[in-house]
Amino acid sequence: MSTPITHASFTLSRKLNAPPSRVFEAFSDPASKKKWFAGPPEWSQGESGLDFREGGSETDVGGPEGGFVSTMHASYYDIVENERIVYTYEMLLDGKRTSVSLSTVELQADGDGTLLTLTEQGAYFTEEDQVAGRKEGTEGLLDALQAFVEGD
Description:
- The chain has one domain (6-151): Alpha-D-Glucose-1,6-Bisphosphate, Chain A, domain 4 (2-Layer Sandwich).
- It has a seven-stranded antiparallel beta sheet, covered by helices on one side.
- Helix 1 packs across helix 2.
- It has helices at residues 20-28, 30-36, 131-151; strands at residues 6-16, 43-50, 57-64, 70-80, 84-93, 96-110, 113-124.
- The N and C termini lie far apart (50 Å).
- The protein contains three helices and seven strands.
- The protein is an alpha+beta fold.
């Protein structure tokens, strides 16, 4: 019998010392996104592509050398420059879908910086891919984003 679907959501907020235009560029520019959107250092990078526009898509494949393969496929639905990004994405582990999520990234000017609010609503299909791990992984990606936009 398959594992029952778990529905869950979380919201993360970050104060970034960079203007909304810099943060938006980190999501929208393929060269910039490759610098911060990645798995752990020991992971090998596989296929990667970003077509950042409404109706566009993104793919990112990677995993530990000789281990499992993690695949993310995203579709972009609503993009307001320097303000909002709404997309869905599915995660696959060794080719098996483990979750599907709806994510919203909101950028609000906050003095010279940006208040970023990320909200994710997910349907998780396996015991290995659940909201606690996804939230932890997303926090790690936001750490990398923050280091990227504040460090360049």
